[in-house]
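Sequence in, structure out. Go.
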Amino acid sequence: MEIYKTVIFTLVGLAKFFGLIVFGLSLGWLLLDAYKNNKQPWQTQVMFLAGLFALLTAMALHVQVGLAGFAVGFGLAVFMWGLPKKPKKED
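Output:
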């Protein structure tokens, strides 16, 4: 019975990890979109950032396994969508 518990806990931990990678990607994209899009008022940008800090605080207190997954996902979002785009070359 102990082996089944270990397997189940491992699978749950992996699901949390990969789920928070996806959550970090989506939240990072939304945050970057709010900052890159100048059509949004500054209050929206401040609330996104305050929400991110509140979420990070809550996750640091309650989510141990998935916090690294969230950090990986958010970091990937910042690198993928935060970099300047190369201009397209026309033939």
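Check: The chain has three helices and no strands. Residues 2-36 form the longest helix (35 residues).
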